[in-house]
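Support request, please re-run this one:
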Amino acid sequence: MSDTNNSSRGIHRRDVLKRAAAAGLGLAAGAFPSSASAQASSNRDLIRRENAKPGTRDWLLTKTRTVPGKINSILPNGRCPWIEGYCSANSVRAGEKLRIMVSTNPASAFKLEIFRTGYYNGDGARLVRTFDSLEGTPQADPPVGENYLRECHWEPAVEFEIPDDWLSGVYLGKLTAEKENIQSYVIFIVRDDRPCDLLFQCSDLTWSAYNRWPADYSIYTKHEGFSSTGVPSGTVSFDRPYALFTHPVNKIKKSGGSGEYLPWEFPLSFWLEQHGYDVSYISNIDTHADPAGLLRTKGFISVGHDEYWTLDMYDNVLKAREEGVNLAFLSANSVLCVVPLLPSGNGTPNRATRREGWFFPSEFSETAEERNLNQKGFKPNMGPDGAQLMGARWTPPGRGSGDWTCAMPEHWLFEGTGMKKGDSVKGLVGWEWHGAPMMDLPGMQVVAEGETLINGKNPGHYTATIYDGPKGNIVFNGATIWWANGLSSPPGHVNPSRHGVNQQGPDERVQQITHNLFRRIIKS
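Re-run finished. Output below.
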């Protein structure tokens, strides 16, 4: 095995953190060579400096293969047993160790190339490390465990320490089997603790919920005694590869193993880093387990399809809002399902989850299946109304697509867009959306609203909102999963289509609205 480290030895993150911490503690001037203000400026330039480094498009998969046949006669299987893997943690800090588990069937040596995703002059990623000629062997599919859990216990193919100079970001490990050159991904987040302008939360609890690996074992699988969409659900684990997702809109080619990051979240990251925004990245698990970490940012961003939240996540983000952190929900179907975070079989915390309830109003209406479960002693684990945090929430019919239509052209969000009342961004709303605005929140304004349809039928009404936090901060709700797709189309990206509506790709008006939003957040 050869191990080539391609990282540039630039500014060391631990030094940055030490200096930032010292500035925050009010140490005497001169304790470090630069002043606190100069250090803050240096921190804000980390993304610009990172993206000035050479990028590559070699991160894209060029030869993929999936198991033939369909699940439940509807969805293609989507699994790639020729080479597939998963990581020991959703997010890691510099200095921490990460294990990557890989199975190859048939046995084959393989290459692991690790890329940090970003803008990089439009290439979308930078190669940071290569492991050549790793040994690959078939690793066993796990048995069906308690509550239908499929949890892998594979031997690691490689274990390494995250270098100091790996900037926070979303990292893809590209796996290539030498026998047939078939490829897939593993995915992980490098996080830090530095003060930042924007904090990008990946929706990895939702990635796991929809993951059917090895065949039909997502939260949406109808097992004996379980409905496919009610509560409780079967349990799903992070200790398994990402394969095909339950929802057919997720059938993005050549993204195997990367969760839902590439179709719904990467276009935002790509655009943020293109424009040099000071952004750091976290997992849903970090939002759950590290409430203090949310207070280091000016703006917390929920991205894409952010459906599954723990009660602690809700409480922690609510407390951040109360402390003056701005919130941007560039997402939809968000804060909908209440889940716990459970340990793995070996006791590792926060490695499994199941659906237990809803972030719905107190007048929650039970389904017939849930009434039956309640008669057996099960009660849904109800959270607060998601609209109390976001400003609006998922509301029936919930699914559908449409145009994002300006309702308040005089609002500062629309400065520089040229939009008038009734002007629309075609196809931006989908495939799920938020409505039911919470009009009693302070300063609540509906900035965009309109109709959604499912193949020309079943109309719904979405509302994009903004309201005031308690300390001059704001909470924006874009009300669509597809917001990021209106910002950029990175290499390999495919614009989504659903419910008879095609998302149109980047739009200058969406870009300007998002600039206006983030500049307001950063100045707060």
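Residues 9-51 form one domain. DSSP finds ten helices and 27 strands in the chain.
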